[in-house]
Fold these 2 entries.
Entry 1:
Amino acid sequence: MLTDALKRLARHSAVYAVGPALQKLVALALLPFVTLTIGGAAQYGVVEMGGVTLAIAAQVLGVNLLHGMTRFFAEERDEARRAAVVSTTLWILFGTTGLAALAAFAFPEQASELLVGTRRETQAAVIVFGILCAQTVGQVGLRWLQAAQRSGAYVAITTAKTAVEVGLKIALLLAGLGSVGVLLSVLGGELLVALGLTTAIALRLGLRFDRAVAKRIALYSLPLVGSGLFMFALHQADRWFVQRLHGEAAVGVYGIGHKLGAMGNTVLLEAFGLIWFPFVFALAAEEEARLVLRKVATYAALGFSFVTLGLALFAREVVGLLAPDFAGAADVLPIVAFGYLFWAVFQVVHTTFYLRMRTGHVAWLVGGAALFNVCLNAVLVPAHGGLGAAWAGVVTFAALALAGWIAAERLWPVGFEARRIAAPILVAAVLAASARFLPADLGSVGSAAVKCALLCALPVVLLWGGFLEQAEKDKIKRALAGWRRAR
């Protein structure tokens, strides 16, 4: 039963990964072009602050209602009730974000102050709030596809969105529009998704607004509004500190390092998250849910440790290839990568709170972590800039993962495998740290060879240390035997 459940989870995650993975890979491939044509680090900093503004505005305006929509869509068995859950969520979020977009259009100077602290980026600010509305409305449709496990449609739509954004980005940057061009390309892709999926919802489900459903979703999601704002502080407040204390150019360099360091999160964890909650909510037996949680936490720690180690070891090569004019980003990248390794662990263990309908626990945990993170940024960023922000993040995420683990086990004991979760993280950290002592005269080829050896050492050390259980060894042996017979 566990094997079948994990296979279904892996299959759907793999399918959902296609769209986000393609989008991220294309974005990485375009990064050298973007950094050369956008007009400098300050212009890239405006784009980064656009992301910050989107993050906080979405939380304030109710994007966490999507969690309630996913939850109650899975619970309902009547198709009419499911349709009401989706359409009601659509109406609420279109209303809140649509009003915000209209306000930005009416008061562009004030919107610019929210974006970068000055009134000189009015065009960018208006576009950002347009993106907010289109993106949020589109997310309702995408969540509907996820909840209905229509992964093929999801991949097709997100792939089309990527194609539109890429084409617009290239054309508008070549036209010399800088940060405004980048933001307009995002708006074009989000509008495509929003209009297409809203039309599909209207035709298939209708556009009925149900007050009872709205109240139910709001009550479930209300505690998540606070936790969503705290999430902003965790993931985006660092840019605000760097921008306000060191300027747009500094936040541009930090943003590149953060983007590259978070690649494992944006490609793998986001794809996993698209199916994880609908999947785990659908598990009927509590013991099965416990077993799935336990094993997924272990395997997630192992997989993300490998990815994180790779990013940390090859940080300078990655930055040199993708953003050569932003060399300082290489110092930030490894620290950010390890921060998101701890974030991945937290994402799995805190699922307990959603399963037990204790979403308020998430708000308390993330709220404490956010306050801790803001304090660390206030202390470290003035003197150390982006590097201080990166260290603030990794310390915060490690503390959050530990606190979430303890609180989750107290609420609903799952029996997370502490030794098997900690082992790959610790080994990866030691191997990454050892790379800093490589001789400078190795040359590029020699350095790459040693780093590859260090990366391969992670699974070797874990196997030698007894990481695998006997049942897992037996499954691997059977799989290898089947593969040999197939050849």
Entry 2:
Amino acid sequence: MRKKSEEIFQTIREYINVYFMETGHSPSTRDIEAGTGIHRIKVQRYLQSMKESGEIEYGGRRGTRNAFAKTIGESVMVPCYGTVKCGMPNDPFVDITETVRLPRSWVGEGEFYILEADGESMKEIGIDPGDLVVIRRQDTAQPGEVIVAMVDGETTLKRFLPGEDRIVLHPENREFEDIVIEGERILRFVIQGVAVRIVKGVR
């Protein structure tokens, strides 16, 4: 029973976050009911519980469309650069397609951009086609981090496994093979950022 309750809490949280990304403001209970299929009375009960725990601010039944307000603190505008291949590398992104607002608490400090996942090579860690991957822009990474990398002039999203004389870009899908970079190709290998968050259900 507790597990079911936690699943409902998580469903509501995720819907609030996605709604905020798309609209710039928080949803009403009516919006949450329509978007999740959870009855409004139950939504109100869960929101009240979240309010009591200090997770959100909630105006209750008296409010209008903006009665429900998520406590997000500082926000940051993040550019979207199209798609990144979750498979073999593809052409590098160049054009900003849109800009979205994210809570600073989601991503921390730094410079960020967003890419839309294309392909299934990372699906075993929950990155599916159409998911939005929030990337912290940096040119170094720790072993085991999921990175956006440029390989021979093309970009890909993979797990970073460096060795003494080679770099392995590991897909999180047993049907795909590692991309092994060694020899002179290492000189053409560039880290473009580290994945910090996955946003599902926006596209």
